[in-house]
Amino acid sequence: MSGVISGMTGFGRCEGALGDWAWTIEVRSVNGRSLDVKLKTPAGLDGLDREGREAAQARFQRGQIGITVQARRSERAAAIRINTEVLAAYREVMADLVDGGASPPTADGLLGLRGVLEAAEADDGDLSEVQAALARDLARALDDLKLARRDEGARLEPLILGFLDRISDLAGRARQEADAQTLAIRERFTKRVEDLTDGAVGLEDRIFQEAAMMAARADVREELDRLDAHTASGRALVAEGGAVGRRLDFLTQEFMREANTLCSKAATLALTSAGLDLKATIEQLREQVQNVE
After folding, report:
1. What is residue 200's DSSP assignment?
2. Is the pLDDT of residue 1 over 50?
3. Contact residues for 79 (Cβ-Cβ < 8 A; gap 6+)
4. Distance between CA atoms of 196 and 174, rounded to whole angstroms?
5. Secondary structure tally for the chain: helices H, strands E
6. How far is residue 224's CA from residue 168's CA, in Å, rounded to a whole number?
7. H helix or E strand, kind and range, residue 66
8. pLDDT value at residue 213
């Protein structure tokens, strides 16, 4: 693996030429949940569309990628031919005019008439060579885009690791508050026992049973253990690098599931506060993960 996560925004560009042809290729990408490739290619080079899509699919897994190819052939280098059929038609009309007393047409006059001179069609063999050269430069532009996306990933990496560290710290704080919550429940019910039993036979046992059930329902140790495990998984994915965006996205959903359960079980303001801080941090992490391929 590369060891560096990949982002989803970037730019690549390549210029080239072959014979009478010159071109510019630009590729851009932005965030996307899946891979979406859109191409704009010159007429007559339709095969480049398929090659461009295959090249993009070989390099990327997610993102909206736009590829623009501008290619032109030098006009002065293009072959010129005389359309003899059009010229013959003009000469036939001119013959009738000359017979009527008009001056004979000059050669430059005839050549200046519309349709007499025209550019020769490009040779299919030449176009296939141009298309092959364009495909190679398109691959280079996509490689530049891949490097740009890796640079973005390198900038995202410390942000994501920072949020994972914050989640770990908040889970530790929540664990302390959870221990305090158990003591608070015990003290609360001890006072209720003292206030309500007043010597009533069997009532004290019932109250302690209810207290034990409430403490079990408020136990958040499993949620905190899973938060710790998810944090370790997140760090491992970042260390793995490459296209880990989908797995990180799924992991943030699991983070939020545990934080929601923790908040629903919270019986003290302090634990509720820790849970809300966890949810806010997880949401910030999720926003950054959307930028990862």
Report:
1. -
2. no
3. 119, 120
4. 32
5. 8, 6
6. 9
7. strand 63-73
8. 65
> Helix axis angle, 124-196 relative to 221-240, nearest 10°?
160
Q: Round to whole Å and give the CA distance between 116 and 109.
A: 10
The Cα 274–Cα 168 span in angstroms is 12
Q: Distance between CA 68 and CA 88 in Å, rounded?
A: 43
* Beta pairing partners, 24: 15, 70
Q: Classify the C-alpha dihedral 99-103-104-108 as positive or negative.
A: negative
Give the residue among 38, 11, 288 at the shortest CA–CA distance from 149: 11
Amino acid residing at 194: E
* 140-153 confidence digits (pLDDT tens): 999 999 999 999 99
**DSSP calls for 171-226:** HHHHHHHHHHHHHHHHHHHHHHHHHH-TT-TTHHHHHHHHHHHHHHHT--HHHHHH
Contact 59, 150 (CB under 8 A): no
Distance (Å, whole) CA 65 – CA 54: 12
Helix (H), strand (E) at residue 227: helix 221-240
Q: Is the pLDDT of residue 167 over 60?
A: yes
Q: Which two tokens stand for residue 97?
A: 């005019």
